[in-house]
Amino acid sequence: MSIESTGLRESKKRETRQLISDHATRLFMAQGFESTTIAEIANAARVAKKTVTNYFPRKEDMAFDHQDAFVASLAQAVAARLVGESALGALRRTFEAGVAAQDPVIGFAGADFSRMIHESPTLSTCLRTLHDRREEVLAAALAEATGSSPDDITAHTAAALLAAVHRVLFRRIQELTLAGRTNDEIAAVVAHEAADAFRVLEPALGHYAVA
């Protein structure tokens, strides 16, 4: 098989995956996650039920289609820190950029999507699990950045503190979204609150994992 045909096949797979995810999310927001069936999603996307489950073994994966990017986000920020910059500084800078861009990864997902998660016990549980996974990946990145062992207690403690700030701010963005505030209003509020939240960690982590 040629490289060109392999590329076309992979492109088609990505398109099909995105199509299924888009239709699933639309149905989840319109009628609720728990109430939506695989058959309804397959019918909307005009594919077989088996195709849906081949691409998404779990129904919640269709709602959190970009979960890998979410889980890796904090670790990537640490890996990309500037010379002389601490892990805290890199994460603060990256979060500030996310607020300015109103990035969905930090919580700017829109009212319908935020309500979908809030009203679904399954998706709420899944989101908590994604936050936990993100913390674990961050701990590994911090251990690597400081030349420590993977089970280093300092790296895991620092990861727990840094991830907690992001978890609190993510929840805050969701709360303000559900309260009917616009993204611009939310960004203004969260930019101020994030500065306070990160400042709390400065005494303990201001010089930790400096590049």
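The above is record 1. Record 2 follows with the same two-line structure.
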Amino acid sequence: MNKKIMLMGILLVFSLGLSACGEPGLSIDSKQQDDVNIIVNGTTDSEAKVSFEDKSGEKENEDVDKDGKFSIHFPRLTSTVNYKVTSKKGDKITTKSVSVPKQKPLTDYETLKDHFNTFSERADDLSVTIPEELDKDSHVNNGFRINTDGSNVMSVLLIYAPENSLLGMESYADFYYSIGALSSSLDISSDVEKLLKTLTNSQENEKDTEVNISGVTYKFSSTGGITSASIFPAN
């Protein structure tokens, strides 16, 4: 064999070996998606472990699929927050920074609570009420989450899961009328029909639908008998 070809082959094998032992690749999509949280997608090595942390140092882990793809759900906050995203494979680490800009609040908690509970008192089919204060996980009950930043309500998530009480509400009346109570507190009385038509479209066709009303996005997702409603400020 030609010595030059042999040398090139050895160098190629050596370089591949170095690459395999190097830092894991890490890329972050520049486009951030609006939902109950702010979603950022990225890719890394399929065997890597991904985590993110803010300046306080509190760390959260994210799942990576077999193709190396992952999604990070950052909380909606009223101030810009910089996060460090880390991909770790063995003892090798790659980091990137992600800046999540400040978000508009949906409403304030006292206003939402007062309107919702007044609606609940008048609606015989709604058994849900909003507590004076939320627990640390922002749960009203299973299937009802209010995400806050201080006294600001940033987004709301409702889930109807008739056969899984751990995942969501078993009562469709509670789910349906909770949407009505929330929309009432956000003053969309003139567009209730449009909102309900969007929900029905999602359930009948088992697909994602959304509508923007008075500066608020209502996003519905239905599959396998489970329906979710995400409510957050529109851009």
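The longest strand covers residues 81-89.
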